[in-house]
Design goal:
With 336 residues, the chain is an alpha+beta fold. It contains ten helices and 13 strands. Helices cover 31% and strands 21% of the residues. Strand 1 and strand 2 form a beta hairpin. The chain binds 6-O-phosphono-alpha-D-fructofuranose. 6-O-phosphono-alpha-D-fructofuranose (P6P) binds next to helix 8.
Length: 336
């Protein structure tokens, strides 16, 4: 009997990757599957969010008498839970938590990896039904296995990531992740409750026609950034201008669209916020890693995002990310 092997689930894909690397311990594959499981649980709750009148607001108790948590707290607990009870992760850093959490139990202390994540980015968009997402980053520990993870494990430059990915809870729910071997996208097939490989080997087009930036901050941007934005708006046969402006205000949705279609996303520093708004460790580093593996680029305006040596889990950075040729066009202004 022919077995339908055409559509691979996330589990099948990660196990296949393991078969291709017999020396691998399977810990990273297991961690990625754990992230997929938590994402499926978050997907269910996010898709009920529109029923808040029935389910109740955060801090209340719902019709079943259960305490209703804010969705980003719920999401944080789901990702932290699967990682804590898995075999691959020694500790986590989260946008939702003031400090890193070292799991410090016998199994976790033997685990090779630590994970940083933004459990539900853009959650303010939930009540208007705009796509939101989870963003995560995986590092191999630098501290001694068998002992609890240390702060140094979490404060590594983005170049040290072994995997990075995001989930987008939108018209469909997707999980996209990158390792050195490539970027692959999985769409949740609700009929079987599995993420299935829908976007194999994602490459970011070298060029696109989309630019994404918050124009409300335009007069707070540095002059080179303003000049580049003007170029995006100007008819020019050499660069295909004018470009189309698309900005959802949900980083995962904006960057995902530009990764697939080609484009550039910018969250520059402003006079009010010179470091910008976005977080280095669990928003910018993961996307920068994914973008580079897919053929794109990501900088803070002065240096490669992945080269930044972090000093704090929650530090912010200006962010420019997207298609290679568009980023190089931007850099001619930033480096002028
Ligand atoms: P602004 C969502 O709050 C978020 O952190 C990102 O997902 C998004 O790209 C950015 O903020 C939008 O910020 O200042 O343009 O509303």
């Amino acid at each position: 009997m022919a077995i339908n092997r055409k559509i691979q689930t996330l589990d099948e894909f990660t196990i296949q990757q393991l078969r291709d690397f017999p020396k691998a311990t399977g810990e990273l594959s297991s961690l990625l599957r754990d992230m997929g499981l938590a994402a499926k649980r978050v997907h269910v709750e996010v898709n009920k969010a529109g029923l808040v009148d029935i389910l109740g607001d955060a801090g209340t108790t719902n019709v079943q008498g259960e305490e209703v948590k804010k969705l980003d707290v719920y999401a944080n607990n789901q990702f932290m839970g699967v990682l804590r009870h898995g075999i691959s992760c020694a500790g986590i850093g989260s946008e939702e938590l003031d400090d890193v959490v070292v799991f410090d139990d016998e199994i976790s202390n033997q685990s090779k990896y630590v994970c940083l994540f933004d459990p539900l980015d853009g959650s303010s968009n939930i009540d208007v039904n705009v796509s939101i997402g989870t963003i995560f980053s995986v590092y191999r520990r630098v501290s001694e296995l068998g002992k609890p993870a240390t702060r140094e494990d979490f404060l590594q430059p983005g170049t040290k990531q072994v995997a990075a990915g995001y989930m987008i809870y939108g018209s469909s729910t997707m999980m996209v992740y990158a390792t050195r071997r490539g970027v692959n996208g999985f769409t949740l097939d609700q009929s079987i409750g599995e993420f299935t490989l829908s976007h194999p080997d994602i490459k970011c087009p070298d060029k696109g026609k989309i630019y994404s930036v918050n124009h409300g901050n335009f007069f707070q941007y540095d002059e080179p950034v303003r000049k580049y934005i003007n170029v995006c708006q100007t008819k020019d046969k050499t660069n295909g201008g004018p470009y189309t402006q698309r900005y959802i205000g949900s980083m995962v949705a904006d960057v995902h669209r530009n990764l697939i279609k080609g484009g550039i996303f910018m969250y520059p520093g402003t006079t009010d916020k010179p470091k910008g708004k976005l977080r280095l460790m669990y928003e910018c580093n993961p996307f920068a890693y994914i973008a580079e593996i897919a053929g794109g680029k990501a900088t803070n305006g002065k240096q490669r995002i992945l080269d930044i040596q972090p000093t704090d889990v929650h530090q912010r950075t200006p962010m420019f990310i997207g298609s290679k040729l568009m980023m190089e066009e931007l850099e001619t202004f930033l480096n002028a």
